[in-house]
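1st attempt posting a full record on here, be nice pls
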Amino acid sequence: MIQIGYKSCVYDCCVYVKSLDDGSFIFLLLYVDDILIVVKNFHDVIGLKTLLSQEFDMKDLGVAKKILGMDIHRDRKLWLSQQAYVERY
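the predicted structure (as tokens):
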């Protein structure tokens, strides 16, 4: 990730960030063999997936609904919920 212009986050070494030409950012969260990509423009996701798939064997599971036990909700903003986790335990 470093070689293609991403910087590792100071607070979490599993988070990589890159500034884009339009002033927005692309975030890549890597946990073992799971990747979550967060970006304003969906075309940037496609570009990154294409680049990564040239280097690694990958499965595209589509739009994420859950990661690390947290539900992902989207409306005008992106938010995470651990309600199901809390109710289960």
